[in-house]
Write a structure and sequence with these properties.
single chain, two-stranded antiparallel ribbon, Rossmann fold, alpha/beta, globular, nine-stranded mixed beta sheet, 11 strands
Length: about 325
């Protein structure tokens, strides 16, 4: 089954096209695929001016669960070659920040953004096992399924998006996430630079370490896993990074330098990226919010800045 983005022209060899709420569905006259038809019928549709939101589930073999996803479709996209893809971990939090209304406002405002197909991926009940750094559990064994989540993204989610929305390729692909979901997004983008070009990390769990900080052998430079990944990786000039932290993310300050750990971990990661050759502002955007907390309300306030940074028409013109 192929479903076309609203107002996009898609040409393919088909037997019949049936239209439902401005979305075309392909049916074969030779054999009806009842499972796909039922899946389409089960999708929940909601509309905000300029945005159509669909919620569906993907049966994942790798994760052995049904993964719920919310797809935010931009309306009136005349040229599919200009459409970018943004995947977002912890997609269950997007409705809390009125993400659909946020997108609609950005599309219509003076600081307009280019078309984005956004996919919010709902987390698992055992979130701390699916999110992390693939192949590198933390000192408590958390993140053991991060590699399986990565396989889900590449082997199941991306093919589902391409097939369902009849978009064979995107202008660019990006990944974002909050807290531990931000760490997972960064891990996927950094280790798959041929697939992604941007990443957004909101209050990222960049502390992820393989030795407890209370261990006398613990060393920031040796035991923070994602920092080691960056340090041992290569330079990919097309990658762009957005980091957001709040001064009230937490209160912990393990090195007693007067800076909370979440900010320390983020600034240290930025230093690792700069050592690779990435430049502040040109390649890296850091947003520190004085009243920012480790919560959805803060990330919702930061999200427009991320979207305008990554896809703002004025930003791209500059």
């Amino acid at each position: 089954m192929h479903r076309l983005l609203p107002n996009l022209f898609f040409q393919s060899h088909i037997n019949k096209l049936t239209c439902y709420k401005d979305v075309y569905v392909e049916f074969s006259l030779a054999r009806a695929d009842y499972y796909e038809i039922l899946n389409f019928a089960a999708m929940q549709l909601a509309n905000v001016p300029g945005i159509q939101v669909e919620t569906t589930t993907i049966e994942s073999t790798f994760l052995e669960r049904d993964v719920k996803v919310d797809v935010y479709l931009p309306l009136n996209v005349a040229d599919s070659s200009q459409l970018s893809l943004l995947l977002i971990n912890d997609g269950q939090d997007l409705p809390k920040m009125l993400f659909d209304e946020m997108l609609a406002t950005l599309y219509a405002g003076d600081d307009a953004i280019t078309p984005l197909l956004c996919v919010g991926i709902h987390c698992a009940p055992d979130r701390k096992m699916e999110y992390g750094v693939a192949g590198h559990e933390d000192f408590l064994g958390r993140g053991a399924n991060a590699g399986l989540f990565t396989l889900f993204v590449f082997k199941e989610l991306l093919p589902f998006i391409r097939k369902t929305y009849a978009v064979s390729s995107f202008k660019e692909k990006a990944f974002a996430g909050f807290s531990l979901g931000g760490l997972m997004a960064l891990d996927i983008v950094w280790n798959h630079p041929a697939e992604f070009s941007k990443v957004g990390v909101f209050s990222g769990s960049l502390w992820w370490r393989n030795i407890d900080q209370s261990d006398e052998l613990y060393d920031d430079d040796k035991h923070r896993i994602i920092h080691q990944q960056i340090r041992n990786g290569s330079y990919f000039p097309w990658l762009k990074f957005f980091f957001q932290c709040g001064n009230m993310d937490e209160t912990k300050d393990r090195n007693n330098n007067g800076i909370i750990d979440s900010i320390d971990d983020t600034l240290d990661l930025i230093k690792e990226l700069e050592a690779k050759g990435y430049k502040e502002e040109k390649d890296i955007k850091y947003l520190e919010m004085k009243d920012g907390r480790h919560d959805v309300a803060t990330w919702g306030r930061a999200m427009p800045a991320f979207l305008k940074w990554g896809w703002g028409i004025k930003q791209q013109a500059d």
